[in-house]
Amino acid sequence: MTDADDRVAFEKRMLDHVFVPPKWMKPALAVTFVITLVLGAAVGYSVLTGVGVWGNQIPVAWAFPITNFVWWIGIGHAGTFISAFLLLLEQKWRSSINRFAEAMTLVALLQAGLFPIIHMGRPWFAYWLVPYPSTMGVWPQFRSSLTWDVVAVTTYFAISLLFFYMGLVPDLAVARDRAPTRQRRLVYGVFALGWRGSVRAWTRYRAVYGMLAGLAAPLVVSVHSIVSMDFAIGVVPGWHSMIFPPFFVAGAIFSGFAMVLTLLIPARRLYRLYDVVTSHHLDMMARMLLITSFIVAYSYFAEIYSAARSGDTFERHQYFVTRMQGPIAWAFWTTIGCNVLAPQTLWARSARTSPLFLFVLSLVIQVGMWLERFIIVTASTSADFLPSSWRSYAPSPIDLTILGGTLGFFMFVFLLFLRYVPFIPIRELEGERS
Amino acid sequence: MARFDDEKALVQALAAMAALGVRDVDAATAYPTRAVEAALGAPRTRIPWAPFTVAAGAGLAAWLVMWWTNAHDMPLDVGGRPVSSFWTDVPIIFETMILSSGSFAFLAFFLCSGLPRLHHAWFEANDLSSGFWLAIPIRTSEGDVNVVARLRACGALAIEVTS
Question: What is the 8-class DSSP label of residue B139?
Answer without folding.
Answer: -
